[in-house]
Design a protein that fits this description.
Elements: H1 2-41
Length: 42
């Protein structure tokens, strides 16, 4: 029972961690593309 709860919590935290990493990656990619576009047009 206890192992099951710990496993679920760990899996939940892992999903949040992955989601955060993906969001940060997308944001960095977006900023990079925006900067390249700004440099390209100026």
């Amino acid at each position: 029972m206890l192992i099951n709860v710990i496993g679920r919590k760990t899996s939940f935290l892992f999903h949040i961690f992955v989601l955060k990493s993906v969001l940060i990656f997308i944001r960095d990619l977006f900023l990079l593309v925006t900067n390249v576009c700004l440099i390209g047009t100026s």
